[in-house]
Amino acid sequence: MELDKKELGATHYKESALKEGKLLSLAKQPKLQYAWDNGPAIGRYLEELKEGRIIARKCNKCRRIMIPPRMFCELCWRPTDEWVYVKDTGKVNTFSICYVNWDASRIKKGDKPHLPAVIEIDGASEGMGILHVLGEVEPEKIKIGMKVKAAWKKPEEREGAITDILYFKPVRG
Amino acid sequence: MAYQKVAIVGAGITKFVRRAQETGKELAFQASKMALDSCGMTIDDIESVSLGTAPDAFDGVHMKGEYLSDGSGGWRKPYMRQFVGGGTGVFAPIHGWLHVASGMFDTCLVVCSEKMSSCYPHPQGAFKTIFDHTTEQALDPTLIWIFALEMNRFMSTYGITKEEIAQVSVKNKKNAMDHPAAQLPMEITVDDVMNSETLAWPVNRLDISPASDGAAAIVLASEHASKRITDKPVWIDGVGWNLDTAYWATRDLSYPRYVEKAARMAYDMAGVVEPKREIEIAEPYDPFDYKELHHMEGLQLADRGKAVEMLLDGVTQRDGDRPMCPSGGALGVGNPIAATGLMKVIEIFLQLRGEAGKRQVPGSPRCGLAQAWGDLMQVGTVVVLRR
Ligand SMILES: [Zn+2]
Hints:
A: 173 residues; mainly beta; 2 helices; 11 strands; B: nine-stranded mixed β-sheet; globular
């Protein structure tokens, strides 16, 4: 069989055909909400973020200090052993300069791009990173390996969320 | 060997389009009917059905496996839905292989159908909930972030440039000009890629595959059943799949270790000792252009950081020594997530049979590979095919 010699299915249409009423479709938006339980590991992580601290969990078998903290070590597949405070500094493992929003819409003209990054946190095991964003930095000045520090919300504004850290900013000097 | 040998004996595909008038069920039916017709079989000859389809959130239809079962010929048959995100299109035939290799069934229809266009304003939004709900979603991530972050890490680890990577997109979109199902066949230059809109540096618009609707299907048969069906069977000689940790930010993003593990599993089963020499043609998963190179390295088809040299030397062109994505890949044919991986399996099937038409690679290859990748950039799925 050669595909070139066959009649293939699927009939393309343009989005405008819906708007012009040439094709009918049904648009519905289910309005569901979820409340996600944190569990003991992320629960403590969030409580500590509210206090302006970052906490990790240690596995005494592989000796990894893991962030985000977890009650089991996915490598050794056994319970983790200890809570360990780590620093609120780290280095940029990788980053992006992003002009689109979560739903693929574009950022507004003149708005600053999103600056997502993987930050390797000081005090956690080598290569242990978290997803966060960068701030107080010109996009073109960002480098892999750059040292950064958490910029925290004011204590009274913190709510026990990853966004209690506003962003990570370059460490001067 | 404790397994029954399993052959691919037929294949079918729809066009890949941004928006299809047909429903997902209808697309599944079109591809499945074409696959059965291609080898002179009917649905009554099919003993089991393996269905692949990716996130339910695209369609807004929960239990999409059940929803698609009628169009896939799964009605009153042993029917199973597979789902590992973008890896689904090769995971579904792997499960089809399990159905037949185990001796449970002599035939299996493998169907992959995807309809991304139902999701507004853009199916990309459906991916937000793949990120951890508490520690990541609050940062408003878009899917492109993880690709941009991984691409940057890959580039900086090995000193590879955006211009070099763009040549993958140029090659694949050009290859797609000869694929009758293709959504984005184009003759473009590296400059076109570089000058296309920057979405999330280092990712530009032409570095990315499109959102698509489409379906693909293949028919599997045991060795003795295949003899009644075709004199040109293509054997699934090796299968492999592997999953890495969901703590993706703690992984080495420059190298897909899980793809290596999946490939080694498939190579061991197929008796492939030197993949660089023995795998003559491959369809690595290419939702983004750098992923073709990233995956070639994970698949052991290139040394770490060296896939780009094969690209620049023309080795991976359709008429090169090791053609990669001769179909046009996800970048050129389109990316209806689950159907893409199966499109890649079909391409290797046709190439090994010498039935790829204008896309036929020279040298009558005997051994090829198709691979897909997905979930939270953590799963590798691989099949090794031989004639
Ligand atoms: Zn451990």
